[in-house]
Amino acid sequence: MKIFLLQICLFLPLALLAQKDMLQYDLYSPDTVSYDIKIMKDKAGLKMVFADLGTFNSNNEPAVSFYASPRDHAFILDNCPWNAACLKPIYDKRYAILPGKTGKILSLQYLSKYSKFFASPFKQTTIAHTTHGNISFEIRGCYLPAYIHIDTPSFYNASAMTGHPISDTFSVKNTGKQTLLIHFVKYDVDLQNQDTTAISIPVGKTKKIMLSYTPNRKGLFSRSAEMVFNVSGDKVKHTAILKIRGWAY
Hints:
Blueprint: H1 2-21, E1 25-28, E2 36-41, E3 47-56, E4 63-70, E5 75-79, E6 87-90, E7 96-97, E8 103-110, E9 122-130, E10 133-143, E11 148-150, E12 154-160, E13 166-174, E14 180-187, E15 199-201, E16 206-213, E17 219-231, E18 238-248
Parallel strand pairs: 3-10, 12-18
Antiparallel strand pairs: 1-4, 2-3, 4-8, 5-7, 5-9, 6-8, 9-10, 11-13, 13-16, 14-15, 14-17, 17-18
């Protein structure tokens, strides 16, 4: 009898752990149109999420949301800490998603009021602890200083024909009190823009930068250019990512 009880004590925790590992669910985000989001698994089968918020202006606080569809047991998010001060997790730990249903588990929002303490481009991570295992989130992006404003820094073209060029123009405005200096623009190799000439933008003025790309195969595409800038007298250089995305058919 003692041997039997000892076997139960040894194997029951392992069985419960295995049962937790076997809990199945689907994870997705409706924000894949707006942002580059990849959902993967590590070697243990746990979910890993990589989201690029792109470049956004100082008056914007972008958020990305995630939904779960459990298959066998109710899905509950137990905890998601503030591992980075700029990344605010928004969720309800009392909310349970029943098997066969789909529900929102959390949103991750970037808080611009703390951005002055962090470098840009930024990369911040946090881990959500759920009944179905941990989910690792890695959030990237570029936060623009208040002296520069870019209209639609991440352009999405709903559909583009393979073999035909598409383009978009980005308006860069100097909203500060000193001359804005664009030192160079580094383009992806297959973008049809290779002008890397330095640009000076006076106070209150706007300069237009165009990205042009010809999709060579069907499916989702994403191409970008890195714009390095600062204002006169500032030794710190910042980076803005201009992106053109879409679906080629």
